[in-house]
Structure formats: C-alpha cells, structure tokens
Amino acid sequence: MAKKTPAINSSSTADIAFLLLCYFLMTTTMGSQTGLSRRLPPMPDPNQKVEDQKVNRRNIIIVKINSADRILAGSEPIDVSQLKDKIKIFLTNPTDDPTLPVMEPTEIENLGTRNVSKGVISLQNDRGTSYQAYIAVQNELVKAVNELRDEAAMREFGKKYLALDEDKQKAIKDLVPQQISEAEPKDVGKRRR
Amino acid sequence: MSMFKKEGKKEMPAISSGSLSDIVFMLLFFFMVTTQMRETENKVVVKIPQASESVKLERKDLSSYINIGTPIRSLQAQYGTDARIQLNDSFKTVDDIRDFVAAERDSKSEADRSFMTICIRADQDVRMGIITDVKQELRRCSALKIMYSARKGE
Fold first, then answer.
1. What is the value of ipTM here, to two decimals?
2. N or C: which end of chain A has fewer CB within 10 A?
C-alpha cells in the first residue's frame, strides 16, 4: 500500500532564492562603461630616419592646453565654450580662406565627388594639465566633428547621422573625417603646480 | 437573504507561497544576465570626468582597465596621496603596463585580439603627466585602441 508523501513545505525556497539574489546583487556591477574612443598613433620606428611628414601649415590647427588649463587654439587664447565653433569653421572653411585647410574634391562611395577638408587637429598638453580639462577639450573636438557629421547627413540624406544605415554612415565618415592627433608629449608652459 | 449566506464560520484559504520562489528566481536570472562580475576591487578613488559626447563601449569583455587616481583613504598611510596606477588588484608603475597588456592580450581569443580596448579610468583631478606616460607606454606595446572613460551628461 503506497503511503501518501506529505507535501514538502516550499515556503523557504523563496528565502534561499533571495539569498542568491543578494549575493549576485553584491558581487556584480551593472552600469555600462561609456567614454571617448581614441586610436593612438603607432610608435615611430627608431631605426627609421626622422622624415617628418610635412603637413601643409594651413591644414593643421594646434590646440594647446597649458598647466593652468588655459587653451590656445591656433594662435589665440580661447575659452572651452568657443572651441567647438572655431573647430567647425576650421574644418569647413566656409569662406575659402587661404589660411584655413584645403577642401579637396574627393570621390566618396555612395555620394560622388565632394569637398573633403584636409584639416588635422593637433592636441598638445602639458604634464601639469588636469585630466578634466583635457577630457573637456577632447569632448569639444568630438562634438564639433559630430555636429558637422549631423549637418552633412542632413544635407546629403535628410536624416541625422545616427539614424543612417551603416553604408551611409561610412560615407559621411569619409566626408567628415575625425582627424585628431595626440601629439608626442611636449611641455607647454613651464609653470607647474 | 439567507441563500447567499455561507454556512458556518468564514475562513481565509491559505495563500500558496510556492510560486514566490519562482518570482524571486526570475529576478535572480534578470540580474545574472544583465550584470557582470566585479573583477577587481578599487584601490584608487576615481571620479570620472563628464563628457557629453561619450559613447558606449561596444565589447565589454574585450576591455581591460587601467585605473589612475589617488589611493583610497585606508591605503593613504601606506602609499601617500599621489596619483597611482592600479592594474588588476595592486598598485603598479608605468613599467608594469607592458606585462599587463601582454597578459591581457593572451587572455583574449586570437580573433578578438585586434579589438582589445584599453580603458583608461582616471580621476578628473589627475595631472596629464601620468596619463601621458601611460599612453606612451601603451603605444610602445602597440595597444593602440584606447578609451578615456567618461560619464555621459552635460
């Protein structure tokens, strides 16, 4: 005669599961990592002769940050808030100024021939520059490029850059390249803190 | 009317709590899937700077972290308050980055190695000198894909 097994009290399984839950809550992290992506230039070969790639002077803007976090863009001191507009003018050269970068007609896939700026932004910092100021400047540079890409995407495809599909994004990327070079370390300004 | 009245005393039936554990398990699975294990313990204080243009890291599993900041309070007696580099679980110098990068590279699969990102998590008050040193060292070991960690927001 089969005996009926009594029902196992299952109310404590919830407690066990809660314990597990608490364990995972404590040991794991959520929060996705965000930041500014960059590609460093490869180290120059020491055997190679120093053959400096002469970038035409008009094609380069030097942004310097000194140890007091002051910014020098081109040849004039500037505030972080104005930097973006300066970079945008530098990269678009709306008035065909001979001191601003060459707009070279280039063949772009999916777009045809367009004028592409040959401008390069060179970022130099001092050892005493604070990281916060450095990131703020980097952010402005990226913002300038992103806004130009948005404008270009609006003009070419009638959509924001992020709303485009991959091929079109690549075309816009070719049209507005992000040329930020983080120069070899140099001391800008001798004042130390 | 008496026909709707129940006979005898009213008694609440016991609520079955058997499904409670299922609900909690569901929560558990949610957290297990959305989170990842904390690998290292922070030994430096890192207050990440803000940047409105920051983007999400695409492959979290392919990134390694270099923390730079002042040691936490309990370690300041031992290590001072100068900015230090933390790799994995201990304080290191710039020279150790080479080994760290090599070890990290080895731990990734062959196909993913070129996508490895070094994430620089530096405190916002750190001076650029130490970061420049780190960057130069990274260039020397040709770990060129880097990311400056930043919070999103204005």
1. 0.73
2. N
